[in-house]
Write a structure and sequence with these properties.
Elements (H helix, E strand, L loop, with lengths): L2 H7 L4 E3 L13 E2 L10 E6 L2 E6 L5 E5 L2 H16 L5 H11 L4 E3 L13 H9 L5
Parallel strand pairs: 1-6, 2-6
Antiparallel strand pairs: 3-4, 4-5
Helix pairs in contact: 3-4
Amino acid sequence: MTARQIALDTQPRRLQRRRTKGWRAPDGAVYVGRPTRFANPARIIRASNGLIVQWGSDGGSVGVWPNEAEARCYATEAFRVWINQPGQADTLLLFRALLHGRDLTCWCPLPAPSQPDHCHAAVLLELANDAGQ
């Protein structure tokens, strides 16, 4: 089996970016965090009363969460709802074309085994590689 065949048989995955000396993203991987066009408009901001989820860089707060897991879950689902809106159809088509078959990187922590992945990059992976599309 050639390297190309192995690459085609391998499912794209989400990788956590690192600042560790020597860490490099695999060839062809795409960074989808800020400030790229693929970034999640829902931001998680630390505040004295908990974690605030804000829509956009200057948008209003949509809630306060006591822990990071719940805030990430909300921000991820907000992204999923937003990207699937009819008004985002062209954006979704573009993202699918640009991200299909690629590994995606961002700063979100990876989930524990058998736990859901609360990261918009996981949503992008799912949407870009959906066989039904």
